[in-house]
Amino acid sequence: MKSAEEFVTLSAHWGTLFSADLHAHFRPVPEEISQFLATELPASPAATSAPVVAAASEESAPAAEEDAAQDELKRLRAAAAAGQPKAQHYLAALYSTGTGGVELNWPAAIELYHKAADQGLSISQNNLGFLYATGQGVQADPLQAYMWFQLAFRGGYQEAGPNLDVLAQHLTAAQRQQAEEMAWERLRRAATAQ
Asked: Which pLDDT tens digit goes with each residue over 144-156?
């Protein structure tokens, strides 16, 4: 195993080693969020009865689009606050990139990723693994990274498999075992909480 200092130095380069698909999940496209809101969190009937875009001219179209984007962000924040894991994930992705009308905010992103991951959302678990592996927004921690990748993979997020493989090369067998036990303990606590 590398020393802690060597791990931090190595982890700065790991972003290129982990699955490329992961990076797309840190930058959800507005259409992806819009589709999520439309299909999984439809607006109230009162909100849908009024036209979203009342563009009388080309000049008012950008303002209407901005209003619609702000409305979607407000709905996303409300759903995240209500405990909806996908909303928490999408809002965390926005905070972790400083996009979609929010400022870069690592503490908020990490908190939201944890909330979604603790509810079993495997893509958030994978993202946390990446953040703990690379030290983005959190202190680099290879055991936490391995645990989150392990949970994501067990939860069906196949892209976590290559991430586990990369990280496993830098951990001893005892460290991998410890991280796997951490994952099992987290799963046991989640099962008893239900």
From this structure: 999 999 999 999 9
